[in-house]
Amino acid sequence: MALELPKEKWVGKIGQVVIGALESEGGTRTSQVAIGGATSLPFLGFEGEYPNEPPIGMEIFDVVREDYPEVVRKPFEDVIDDPGKWAKKCVEEYGADMICIRMIGTNPEEENRSIEDAEQTIKELKEAVGVPLLIYGSGDEEKDAKVLEMASNVMAGERCLLGLAEEAAYKSISVATMSNDHGIVAFSNLDINLAKQMNILLTDFGVKLENIVMDPLQAGLGYGLEYSYSVIERIRLAALMGDKILQVPIMCGTTRMWNAREAFKEDAATGDSTSRAIFWEATTGLSALLAGADALLMRHPDAVKHVKESVKNLYGGGEQ
Amino acid sequence: MALTALDIYKNLPQTNCGKCGFPTCLAFAMQLANKKASIDACPDISDDAKELLESSAAPPIKLVKVGSGDREIEMGDEVVMHRHEKTFYHPVAYALMVDDDSPDIESKVQATEEMKFERVGQEMQLDMIAVRSKSGDPAKFSSAISAVKGKTSVPLVLVSQNPAVIEEGLKACGPDRPLIHAATKDNYEKMAELAKANNCPLAVLEDSGLEELAELSKKVKEAGVEDIVLDLGKKPLGKLFQELTLVRRLAIKKLFRPLGYPVIMFAGGEGASEGLEAAIGTVKYASIVVMKEADRAIMYPLLTLRQNIYTDPQKPIQVKPGIYELNGPAEDSPVLITTNFSLTYFTVAGDIETSKVPSYLLVADSEGLSVMTAFAADKFTADTATELIESCGISDKVNHKKIIIPGQVARMSGKLNENSGWEVVVGPRDSSGLPKYLREYVGA
């Protein structure tokens, strides 16, 4: 008797969000990224569609904090004070599928950069690279409203993702998103119910579900990764089982991992600090993908390289 | 599929005699279905029915043990596809592979044996050594095994498809119950004999498909081997990943016995690539991952991943309550307090480290609850905080009596001050505010 392989028949389909507008669509991007679109669990294309190899973007800053870890500063030493050049290096040398800039320098409690300065940064970034862009504020609600409104206008027609919308601050960013047909990143902190709530708040406010990507927070390896893993997995399972409001693509960053000094501090007992940091970041990112994330944002070029290789092997190696 | 109470009931005598301790056979069947009773309690059941019920009550993935003594490894006996459904019970075992013709076997094994880490109170290290017969020479294999055994007592995997080589290797192992790797469709009869004679678990290797693998595992079982481990063989990673999932589903959801065993996987690639394949096996369904290298910079994060994934979701990881010194504090350094939920501790400690301000962090035993939850549940109160301040010896370390509490529990300030006599300072509501807060605090 032939062995019947247990393939799941999921009823749900994850939405697909395309970012980056090509010239033919009125933009100036030279490439696009499609996030989501799956009707199967990650890398199990044999039982449904898993149409898009998860894209991997790289994360940069308008201003780099003094305490930015040396190991991830080093590959960009020559360009780190110039976001445009930094982005260009990520794309041209390290194959970033998209660039996410965090405008932390605009925060009134940090450098308090002016909107005009921030605008200059965004314009330079837009010129420097052709990949789709994500623009995140600094977490200061009042300032972000202005920064993201500006970003939305500068990037009009380019189809970016703006972020991060949070439960306590989502209205002005939603407006910025809708006014120029960008997408939005809905952030929630390790909680499936909050993730759902965010999508409800945004859609009630007028954002279309097909313009939302959610970031349910990927905790760093060793720093709560297991919670993230299960939250993401539960979100994805609920979506595939038919929960419409959770049928939104997931994008995670390895951002949190870079707060864990254990990952990159000098400590001979746990091996070479650079190799350890790279593997730490790669593992943090890869486990988000295995749990159900559809896209990643990362920082170290070698970690990106390793995850891309794993994704390629996982994505192409099986039955689709 | 697992039997329902009704399925079980049909196989019981249906006499409602009550000798099992339950009033009716149906009541007994319901207890059996919930695994709250044993079929042995029924004195009148037929042998056939008993066998059927026993086999359906067996765990979906057989528990297999490798090795002996205190480093024996248990694997299998998993019951869910996703860790949040219950938990993953038996952490994947990592094995380092050495070749019998390698000149530096002893130093490699020695280095592995010395590679021990401690993380959140748990010891972490490699679990096994796989000895591969590359030479094909039984004597060489045997002496390689003796060399390994001279350095470590971890369980071994004997890697050769030549029964004559395995036979010599088993002699060198004595009563240590290594895993034999592997039986194939060409050698399984001999391998099964060896496994039986030496009471060892046996890996079955078949790379052409799951059906063929199931056929082989059935034959090995029929030959009398109970402890089986599956090897899906070398194949593209994506294919292997899909098959690992399918094997787990067949075992757990379909109770398909021929594939209801733990799985061994040989990680491909080198360096970080090999590490990431091992990470994939860790997250999705391997019970043993064999690696060619064991670099500390890879093993430490990998063991941390295992620790994370195999944490019981119902029982949060806790850190040890007490005093934690961060950034090299002195007697005038600030003192902060938080709870012992690992995530809380890591977040707070990380933010204090970021601030670069030398500090003492007191960690209260909140039974693994976060600050707000513990406060609400009366596990983190002015009383427990006072007790910690008094018992942990912080008074001997600092020359002041000032403590910073989380902003979310500002309400306990008055009582804490009254109880402990310490001046209470309310810190930021969220840990992310600590770097700025602490820098200003010591600047002021």
**Rough outline of chain B:** globular
Q: How many helical elements of chain A? A: 9
CATH C-level of chain A: Alpha Beta
Oligomerization category of the chains in this entry: heterodimer
**Main sheet of chain B, how many strands, which sense, barrel?**
8 strands, parallel, barrel
Whole-number tally of structural domains of chain B:
3
- Helix/strand class of chain B: alpha/beta
- Strand segment count of chain B: 17
Verbal overview:
The complex is a heterodimer of chains A (320) and B (444). Helix content of chain A is 37%, strand content 14%. Chain A has 320 residues and is of the alpha/beta class. In chain A, strand 5 (133-136), helix 4 and strand 6 (161-165) form a beta-alpha-beta unit. The two termini of chain A are 24 Å apart. Chain B folds into three domains: 5-57, Electron transport complex subunit B, putative Fe-S cluster (3-methyladenine DNA Glycosylase II, Chain A, domain 3, Orthogonal Bundle); 64-309, TIM Barrel, CATH 3.20.20.20; 322-443, 3-Layer(aba) Sandwich (Rossmann fold). Chain B has 16 helices and 17 strands. Chain B has helices spanning 5-10, 25-33, 47-57, 105-114, 138-149, 163-173, 188-197, 210-222, 237-254, 271-283, 296-309, 342-355, 371-376, 382-391, 413-420, 434-443, and strands spanning 64-66, 73-75, 93-99, 116-119, 122-125, 128-132, 156-159, 179-183, 202-205, 228-231, 263-266, 288-291, 322-326, 335-339, 359-364, 402-405, 423-426. In chain B, helix 12 (342-355) links the parallel strand 14 (335-339) and strand 15 (359-364). Chain B is globular, with a radius of gyration of 28 Å.
